[in-house]
Amino acid sequence: MNQFLTDLFAGQQYDADHFFLLAGPCVAESEPLVMEVAEKVSRICRNLGIPYVFKSSYRKANRTSITSFTGIGDEAALQLLRQVKERFHIPTVSDIHAHEEAAVAAEYVDMLQIPAFLSRQTDLLEAAAKTGKVVNIKKGQFLSGPSMKFAVDKVTHAGNEKVILTERGNTFGYQDLVVDFRNIPWMKEHQVPVAMDCTHSLQQPNQTSGVTGGNPELIGTIAKAAIATGADGLFIETHPNPAVAKSDGANMLKLDYLEPLLEQLIRIRKAVLST
User: For residue 210, what are the contacts with CB-CB under 8 A and spacing of at least 6?
Assistant: First the structure.
């Protein structure tokens, strides 16, 4: 495990051979939801020895429709993320969408996430880097794994070596994504940890209904293939009841399904490491 990840997970007891996990609800919908998911997932990960980062967006800027839910307010949502860190002693991550958001969000979270659509935005990457926080860059749906070298360079040239790359599929036609698992070993060649976004990679975006669709029944398939092809970490959005989620419910994992999936993935990881 990279030193910056060891530092990030310093407060947790975990198996160093396990993959790390970024997981939580897509957006901070309410305090009860955020605390329920953080408590359950942190307990599961503690019991399984998985290093864990709680994920939830404090604001959703890239929504399909003008009527889509974007958040409960930046300050309120960021305060919830701070409470998660303090109550459960786990690091947190959230998206940022503009360079001026980087320093603000960095006051509350341990990791800044660059959305896939914005992975080429130089000023955003540099601003995130200059906070000194870990920077997780989602690979653009329009980019290859080898081309993500330039995104990594933008962060490291700004003086920050704490970079993660996350695969999340590539656009296929107008309303679907496909995952090319070659991108995992290709991105590992950039000498950074690589994660797999097991939920957004199953989106069916740009639906004429104005609501993004998805294939959540394939989350396990994507996660297993990612571990088998060498992913260092997994990104999984999860919700107690995805049917009523206010964002990305069509491709989130039901919270009750998370623990048995992680148990399967640990067995696959051990098999991969033993070969």
Answer: 64, 65, 67, 68
For the segment 118-164, what is each residue's pLDDT rounded down to a tens digit? 999 999 999 999 999 999 999 999 999 999 999 999 999 999 999 99
Give SS3 for 154: helix
Interatomic CA distance for residues 217 and 239, integer angstroms = 14
Give the count of alpha carbons within 13 A of 4, CB side only: 15
Amino acid at 201: S
Instruction: Decide if 180 contacts 170 (C-beta within 8 A).
Output: yes
Q: What is the pLDDT of residues 180-210, one digit of tens each?
A: 999 999 999 999 999 999 999 997 775 545 5
- Tally DSSP H helices, then E strands, for the chain: 9, 13
Record the tokens describing residue 221, joined without a space. 């398939």
Q: How many Cβ atoms from other residues are within 10 Å of residue 66's Cβ?
A: 7
**Fold type of domain 3-270:** TIM Barrel (3.20.20)
